[in-house]
Amino acid sequence: MNEIIGDDIGPARVIQLYSARERLRAVVVVDNTALGPAVGGVRVSPRVTADEVRRLARTMTLKNSLAGLPHGGAKAGIMADPATMDKERTFRVFARMIRDCVDYIPGPDMGCDETAMAWIHDETGRAVGLPEEIGGLPLDKLGATGFGLGECAEVAAPRAGIELKGARVAIQGFGSVGKAAARSLRAKGAILVAVSDSRGGVHDPDGIDLEALATAKEDTGSVNGYGKGRKIAAAEIFGVPCDILIPAATPDVIHGGNAGAVTAPLILPGANIPVTAEAEEALHRRGVLIVPDFIANAGGVIMAAMEYGGRSEQEAFAAIGERIRTNTGLILEKAAADGCLPRTAALALALERVRRAMAYRDY
């Protein structure tokens, strides 16, 4: 693993995990705990890297800070293929290896779900996004992140010159977040016109039937199984004519090489760090409004914090709506007044709260 260089915020610690017997490799990055114990998901992918985990952990610090949660940020990465690994064995061994890392509270992320969190909780007593049968608020099942994206869209769309009712939406990544975002936006009158996953995509300017799409995905393993519209390559999703583009899969998917193809005037990140700094600057110069990822997709971690604090599902959804709407409006107003990127304005506010908390601790 390449050396991870820190700054005045973190990371507080980087832990490399390896089990020769289980052939398990993982890394945990606890970025900052000044605001409280760090919450962050466990990402499972054969391509996840320590640097990616570091960047994601910092995003969680920023996300928890701006959402006003009593938590710092962290992330874990398990270098394995979730489609082929022995999931229960892997997550139980991973959990035992982090049992003493008490300032890290794992949550679900790409490649795992509430069942994995139940296994981790069984081993450590610490996890969020648990199944409802054991007192949890299953983030993916309830669609917390996608719900939050819909709330964000209602505030951001008018500032991008978009009428949300009738707005054309393209979603890159049709997993739990993408599906929930599509449902949330449809309820607000938007129309899903394009969607993609790792195996391809589909574009139908007349609108995609969400239930038929979900069934096709379940039956065939890809949105390509949807029977209507035009089949497209996965990479084509970024250039599809639309009003709102939601990257909801992996990091750095919008970059210098494809930013010029983007037609959407509004980007709402459903995934963390999906837009490179280079692309964000270029799109901003073109007038594209990009809500920072750590605001737009904070619904999941807000619900996780509500679960950890013993709050109800209703209280969690109310908190998601109120906090994401407030922060979206606040940051977009500040960015417009200062003439800066929304990310720049959001970073300043998030880091200010973290630094104030650090000043009260022997950090």
UniProtKB/TrEMBL annotation:
Gene3D superfamilies per record: Leucine Dehydrogenase, chain A, domain 1, NAD(P)-binding Rossmann-like Domain
SUPFAM superfamilies: Aminoacid dehydrogenase-like, N-terminal domain, NAD(P)-binding Rossmann-fold domains
Pfam families (UniProt xref): ELFV_dehydrog (PF00208), ELFV_dehydrog_N (PF02812)
Site description Important for catalysis, residues in chain: D109
InterPro entries on file: Aminoacid_DH-like_N_sf (IPR046346), Glu/Leu/Phe/Val/Trp_DH (IPR006095), Glu/Leu/Phe/Val/Trp_DH_C (IPR006096), Glu/Leu/Phe/Val/Trp_DH_dimer (IPR006097), Glu/Leu/Phe/Val_DH_AS (IPR033524), Glu_DH (IPR014362), NAD(P)-bd_dom_sf (IPR036291), NAD_bind_Glu_DH (IPR033922)
Domain of life: Bacteria
UniProt GO MF annotations: glutamate dehydrogenase (NAD+) activity; nucleotide binding
Limits of the Glutamate/phenylalanine/leucine/valine/L-tryptophan dehydrogenase C-terminal domain: 136-362
Keywords, in A-Z order: NAD, Nucleotide-binding, Oxidoreductase
Positions with a binding annotation for substrate: K63
Catalytic residues as annotated in Swiss-Prot or TrEMBL: K75
CDD domains, per database record: NAD_bind_1_Glu_DH
Residues involved in NAD(+) binding: T145
Gene Ontology biological-process annotations: L-glutamate catabolic process
Family recorded in the similarity comment: Belongs to the Glu/Leu/Phe/Val dehydrogenases family.
Designated name of the protein: Glutamate dehydrogenase
Higher taxonomy: Bacteria, Pseudomonadati, Thermodesulfobacteriota, Desulfuromonadia, Geobacterales
